């Protein structure tokens, strides 16, 4: 082995040498930027998903489809015979926080489901009349059977104290809830429209005090 070679190999060198060219630098920069963009989009997506979960966007078309109301803040039901229970339940559970629904007439079947689950954003007048019956399971036009509607506990207990949900496909009539019994479940509406600046619970009469005064 020559002296020159020994001197050359006697220097400590890294075991791996990477030569960074301009092209490689550009590729690394693009890769880093892409990773950051993907991370940012993931964060934005998670934030939007959380926002939609906690504060869902309310499509007023649901309320319009169920009750025929175009203004959620001043929705008056004069006569509604119900319909698809899922639609009415969805409309109740996605009701805007500033909405108020006044029942001032006949509310039947799935409409009662709406009025039940939309509480406390539903009030009643002395004209309100709720008509309850067994639900019907269908496949197209074919009736597959009957079921007990999933009302909340207070209304369900009241119904069973009267007997049961009637089967209106037979000779049984609707089970009505009329004034003043309605005040056991819903507050009495005031005669004027609610002021927009006042909370709804302050605008509506206290249902317990109203029921006791009757």
Entry keywords:
elongated; disordered C terminus; alpha/beta; disordered N terminus; 17% strand; single chain; two-stranded antiparallel ribbon; 2 domains; five-stranded mixed sheet
Folded structure, characterized:
With 214 residues, this protein is an alpha/beta fold. It has two domains: 18-57; 60-213, no CATH class. Helices cover 40% and strands 17% of the residues. It is built from eight helices and seven strands; from the N terminus they run αααβαβαββββαβαα. Strands 1, 2, 3, 4 and 7 form a five-stranded mixed sheet that branches. Helix 3 crosses helix 4 (85-93) and helix 4 packs parallel to helix 5. The chain starts with a helix and ends with a helix. The model is unreliable at 1-8, 50-55 and 206-214 (pLDDT under 50).
- Largest β-sheet summary: 5 strands, mixed
Q: Can you give the mean pLDDT?
A: 77
Total number of helices = 8
Q: Classify the secondary structure makeup into a structural class.
A: alpha/beta
Q: Please give the alpha-carbon distance between the first and last residues.
A: 116 Å
Order of SSEs, N→C? Answer: HHHEHEHEEEEHEHH
When the domains are counted, the total is 2
Rounded Rg: 33 Å
Helix content: 40-55%
Shape: elongated
Parts with pLDDT < 50 across at least 5 consecutive residues: 1-8, 50-55, 206-214
| Beta-strand share of residues | 15-25%
Number of strands: 7
